[in-house]
Design a protein that fits this description.
Strand content: 15-25%
Shape: elongated
Largest sheet: 4 strands, antiparallel
Number of strands: 29
Number of helices: 28
Structural class: alpha/beta
Distance between the termini: 58 Å
Radius of gyration: 37 Å
Length: 901
RNA sequence: GGGCGGUUAGCUCAGUUGGUUAGAGCGUUGCGUUGACAUCGCAAAGGUCGUAGGUUCGAGUCCUAUACCGCCCACCA
């Protein structure tokens, strides 16, 4: 003990311990097909890490998933599973490309100036330089990943998996290329998927204008939010039953300024009640218009280029931006008397999830996955229970998305990513889809091949992650043993992006679910529930928190105090509170180590009578805790389990047992040894329980505990011998409840109550702990229990043992003493000169009033149909309470009477 | 438009087979340096569990309706 500082120096310990764990190979699964001692009979437990962006920086989202997953991995490792946590990182196409482009611009050059090959080269260099940072930061969180199995989505193996997947889907007809309405990001100049578009409410206008009928001065009033798209209009649509416009259907109207003639069509889609009831149709720039145009065989006029600049189809507006074209066209229309009015209107603007720029719906030739068949299989896997989603409410969200899913646009016009494995023969115009780079055209033998310029959506490779990281498409030993994985733990915000797609791809390529359980955690917000963002300045940096308060405190904060799937509001104060807990564990352990220092080395014979009440109590409480934790872990209630361990450790073990242990230790001899043994075993169990939550401080303390205990021949909680490290020690298993537990716990509760009441009264009377006072207790049938506990009561209630008497009953109540009744045990405190009779009377009367309330309540409860209908055990419990209250009441009455006038 | 979550102590949140005086942390108040811990100890104050109904012997917990806050999906010009 003497060599342990008063406060836990986590800074030094964390690095040292992590390095030790890693060097000793504890992060590797205990049964490993890559090693000669592989034992396939051991059940594996596997998590694939949600791969962080390779150039990312640690944020609380990482802290959350690492804490959660490391908890599960450590727990299962201790339970004896072959626990494998596969680490890795994601190339993160758009995010990384943007970062590198920013760097290039700072250098005065650009992606375009460099050209594709040089750009890719620079990006790899960037990755080499910054790619390791995030992994180091994840190590700091204590992640017990098998780093030898680390993977990267662009490494050769995973790239091979991507090609295999692409070719298989293509051969099956599940991948196709064609023109389709997609979301175009004009700044990035790439297509993005529906999921990558976010809608934001923004103020704008609804522009009302005239669509003049050809050869007439009649017009159809039309409303639009985007006047510039008039340039691409190919029809005006009205509802077929709309009396106002019925006569116009089939005639032509004139596109403003451009003068093109376009038809008036009738379509059910039009809502007569909205706007003017007439809808302009711009098939190339609006998804709904596109759908209508398909029904009516309307032509498509694309009036914007890749950068959303008006092209040659925009006539006089060619070369203008969307915003500029809108303004100019509207001005010109006003001059031509085509404008009716502008109405303020709330717009729902599609913006890029990445850059925030306005997304342009656009018809473009892209690669798509025909998702329906995959989605159906993925739905079935959850419906029939092969995959369980926790918390359950997200299954509905999952169903809803997959039931309404659209084909997935997988091509991106980027340079950083998996290039689409398709080549076009310049000689015969054939398309070649191949796992290997072809050297000649298999159709004509020509060697003028050009590979498709596009890369795949980053999520395409992520979707293969659980099996590609284990070696797929090879049937590797890893894949055979560790797949399907056990739990997919991630944030609910990527349920669609990632989880659903992994399930679809997993089922398609391996015929099995990629994991059995999906555990979704919530998002980490600031203490007011606001999303953290740099602009708001409310970001909590996990690295700083770890520096200041320790990794364990941060981890405990992520794990405890919120429910699965619920967002968590994190404040530094909360982490501080948990730092205090780590410190509590440290100091309680430090005390116990000190006890061992002073313990006679040689074993002594057992104490007669065995355990004290406190020993039995703490043991019974520990067993109850172990059972509870096991039950909670089984239903993924890790937070509640952590809270209970915290409560037990601090409020029961440290506050009560350790305090009583001090008394028992003072007896010396066999009693002291017995007590030391209990201290060691309970502490050992607690450190094991806490280890998945707070791995560092527990490992550090446990090392000291192990050494000291071994010196004294003291056994651990679990097993006969002390394993070499806590991280690989066995999980403490609870025993089924035994008959004595409830009784001992009840007896001890009485002792606690008596002590608390005395302390309470002392506090009321301002009798400081330094002042020892006398006490007279009439215990009735509880006398034997209290006699055994006399020393404890005296010590913890700060009584003078010389003036402390216990008896079954008193012939007459002591005079001039403050009195209490605790569960029908009478307590008298002779506070000489401090007892004010009238104040005492008032206090007793108040007490009686409270108890009378309970008596009345219970009497009426037991007199009601409750007594007949409720289970006997429940009723008996209430009867018992009533009896105790009644007894207490009558004793209080006696005490009151004895005060005299 | 559809769906989900939240509403519990001053603040941030737990409370999962419905069991009868509702818990924690922080904050507040009083006392305390009793040799593990002031990153602490002892004690206290503080809640009609959003509202209204219902089921039940019994509801924070189940059902219905409703208010407010937040989120997701859809994307009516």
């Amino acid at each position: 003990m003497t060599d342990l500082p008063k406060t836990y120096d986590f800074q030094a310990a964390e690095r040292r311990i992590y390095q030790w764990w890693e060097e000793r190979g504890y992060f590797k699964p205990r049964s490993d097909p890559r090693r000669p001692d592989f034992d396939p009979a051991v059940e594996p437990f596997v998590i694939s890490i949600p791969p962080p962006n390779v150039t990312g920086e640690l944020h609380l989202g990482h802290a959350m998933f690492v804490s959660m997953e490391d908890l599960m991995i450590r727990y299962h490792r201790m339970k004896g599973y072959a626990a494998l946590w596969v680490p890795g990182s994601d190339h993160a196409g758009i995010a990384t490309q943007l970062q590198v482009e920013r760097m290039l611009i700072a250098e005065g050059t650009s992606r375009e100036a460099l050209g594709r090959e040089a750009f890719e080269q620079r990006t790899w260099e960037w990755k080499a330089k910054y790619g390791g940072i995030i992994q180091q930061q994840i190590r700091r969180l204590g992640a017990s990943c098998d780093w030898e199995r680390e993977r990267f989505t662009l490494d050769p193996g995973l790239s091979r998996a991507v090609r295999e997947a692409f070719v298989r889907l293509y051969d099956k007809g599940l991948i196709y290329r064609g023109p389709r309405m997609i979301n175009w990001s004009p700044g990035l100049k790439t297509a993005v998927s529906d999921l990558e578009v976010e809608y934001s409410q923004e103020p704008g206008f609804l522009y009302h204008f005239k669509y003049m009928l050809d050869g007439s001065d009649e017009y159809i009033p039309v409303a639009t939010t985007r006047p510039e798209t008039i340039l691409g209009d190919t029809a005006v649509a009205v509802h077929p039953e709309d009396e106002r416009y019925r006569a116009f259907v089939g005639r032509s109207v004139i596109v403003p300024i451009l003068g093109r003639k376009i038809p008036v069509i009738a379509d059910d889609y039009v809502d007569r009640a909205f706007g003017t009831g007439a809808l302009k149709i711009t098939p190339a720039h609006d998804p709904n218009d596109y759908a209508i145009s398909q029904r009516h065989n309307l032509p498509l006029i694309n009036m914007l280029d890749d950068s959303a600049i008006v092209n040659e189809n925009g006539g006089p507006y060619q070369g203008l931006s969307r915003e500029e074209a809108r303004k100019r066209l509207w001005d010109d229309m006003r001059a031509a008397d085509l404008v009716i009015r502008e109405e303020p209107y709330q717009l729902n603007v599609p913006r890029s999830q990445r850059g925030g720029e306005i997304i342009e719906p656009r018809v473009s030739t892209q690669w798509f996955v025909r998702i329906q068949p995959l989605a159906e299989a993925a739905l079935a896997a959850v419906r029939d229970g092969r995959i369980k989603i926790v918390p359950e409410r997200f299954t509905k969200v999952y169903y809803n998305w997959l039931e309404n899913i659209e084909d997935w646009c997988i091509s991106r016009q980027l340079w950083w990513g998996h290039r689409i494995p398709v080549w076009y023969c310049q000689d015969c115009n054939e398309q070649i889809v191949s796992r290997e780079d072809p050297t000649a055209c298999p159709h004509c033998g020509g060697n003028h091949l050009r590979q498709d310029e596009d890369v795949l959506d980053t999520w395409f490779s992520s979707a293969l992650w659980p099996f590609s990281t284990l070696g797929w498409p090879e049937q590797t030993p890893d894949l055979r043993y560790f797949y399907p994985t056990s739990v997919m733990e991630t944030g609910y915000d990527i349920l669609f992006f990632w989880v659903a797609r992994m399930i679809m791809m997993g089922l398609e390529f391996t015929g099995e679910v990629p994991f059995h359980t999906v555990y979704l955690h919530g998002l980490v917000r600031d203490e007011n529930g606001q999303k953290m963002s740099k602009t708001k300045g409310n970001v909590i940096d996990p690295l700083l928190v770890m520096d200041e308060l320790g990794t364990d405190a941060l981890r405990f904060s992520m794990l405890v105090g919120s429910a699965p799937g619920n967002d968590m509001n994190l404040s530094v104060k909360k982490v501080e509170a948990n730092r205090n807990f780590a410190n509590k564990v440290w100091n309680a352990s430090r005390f116990i180590l000190g006890v061992l220092d002073n313990l006679p080395a040689a074993p002594v014979e057992l104490v007669e009578g065995g355990w004290t009440l406190a020993d039995s109590w703490v043991w019974g409480r520990l067993q109850a805790l172990l059972r509870d934790v096991e039950r909670l872990f089984a239903v993924h209630q890790y937070g509640e389990a952590g809270r209970q361990i915290y409560e037990f450790f601090w409020s029961e073990f440290a506050d009560w047992y350790v305090e009583i242990a001090k008394i028992q230790l003072a007896e010396g001899g066999a009693r002291a040894r017995e007590t030391a043994e209990t201290l060691v075993r309970v502490l050992d169990a607690c450190l094991r329980l806490l280890h998945p939550f707070t791995p560092f401080v527990t490992e550090e303390l446990w090392g000291h505990l192990r050494a000291a205990a071994q010196q004294h021949g003291l056994r651990p909680f679990t097993g006969q011998e002390w394993p070499e490290a806590l991280i690989i020690a066995a999980w403490p298993e609870g025993q089924p409840e035994e008959g004595w537990e409830a009784q001992k716990i009840a007896e001890f509760s009485l002792v606690q109550e008596i002590i608390r009441s005395i302390r309470n009264l002392r506090a009321e009377r301002k009798v400081t702990p330094g002042r020892r006072i006398g006490a007279i207790i009439a215990a009735g049938e509880r006398l034997p229990v209290l006699q055994e506990q006399a020393r404890t009561i005296a010590a913890l209630a700060f009584l003078d043992p010389q003036q402390f008497t216990l008896s079954a009953a008193l012939s007459e109540p002591p005079q001039g003493a403050a009195s209490l009744v605790v569960s029908s045990v009478e307590v008298y405190l002779p506070l000489a000169g401090m007892v004010d009779t009238s104040a005492e009377r008032a206090r007793l009367q108040g007490e009686m009033h409270d108890i009378q309330t309970q008596v009345t309540r219970l009497e009426s409860l037991l007199g009601s149909s409750f007594a007949q209908k409720a289970p006997a055990s429940v009723v008996n419990k209430e009867r018992q309470k009533l009896a105790t209250y009644q007894d207490t009441l009558s004793k209080l009455k006696t005490q009151l009477d004895s005060l005299g006038e």
